[in-house]
User: Fold this.
Amino acid sequence: MADIAHTVHVALGERAYDILIGDRLLDQAGALLAERFPGRRYGIITDETVAKAQLGRLTASLDAAGLEHSEIILPAGESTKSWAYLGQAVEGILAARLERNDLVIALGGGVIGDLAGFAASIARRGMPFVQMPTSLLAQVDSSVGGKTGINSPHGKNLIGAFHQPSLVLADLSTLDTLHPRQFAAGYAEVVKYGLIDDEDFFFWLEEHQAEIFAGGTARGEAIARCCRHKARVVIEDERELGVRALLNLGHTFGHALEKDTGYSDRLLHGEGVSIGMVLAHEFSARQGLAPSQDTGRIIQHLHKAGLPTRLADIPGTLGSTDILMAAIAQDKKVSRGALTFILTRGIGQAFIEKNVNPAVVSAFLEDMR
Assistant:
């Protein structure tokens, strides 16, 4: 019997699926897949780092269940989210002679989940896939909701498709192998859910942060609460035509910073989101929308988690404000050239603000430098 601590159902009609959260799920994946998807073959897409730490557990489980599988192993890092490695993944699926009804498995963090999901969406004009997220960021955010894609020289996640997974297996034990910096980066996305519209969750995080980092039962509870939150939003707005944009709190600034740092280890995605959330709250406060003390409280919480909160925390020299503004202008929420930001009236009170004046944003960024 699988050690499933939490089950979150994403009710999307014929595209509905479950998120299973528990310990040692990779070791039980074969039995779970055989029960839910009988008679299928599997193509596992992962990266070199995750392959060393987790691939053997998954393949042993598939072998024990008598499931045929092949592996496609890509380099680790944000730069893998590119046309070149997308093509390598798709060609690997085809070379393995996987059929349209077989399944792709995305084993890894957000990069692999996004790329493998996109590959599944276009290989043979669409194949089902299973998310097996191995990072905190992927377990609470990118593995849920069906947003898949790759980066462009013009910006982050500008190429992709909405393609819902058939199942998500979030194995809590994989988080024990993460580097502390990677875990902290994922925690920024956990905090995000509290800052959007769940003040009580943010307060709960303040009380349970240490246990979440230590690996106690609060870790699984936090992940489940994030997944329930995202599932609720995805059900209401699957293709990000309205309220789902709230999930991008901090991301407009964060994505611009990631682009400027070359999608490198200078700034991990979650670190960019951390700084971006602080900037969004500070910008809101300066517009008279939110109390300034909330920004200080958020900075304190993120700093305690080991996360950067200021532009000055980013190693190296950033590009000019004009360069950052050019990246912001490529944000997916831009409509007819007008900037859209997720702003806030305080902790748990985020909202979508359209037609934000670029000159005001530029002056704000210049001041924050």
Observations:
- The chain has a mean pLDDT of 95.
- The domain at 4-177 is CATH 3.40.50.1970 (Rossmann fold).
- The longest strand covers residues 155-162.
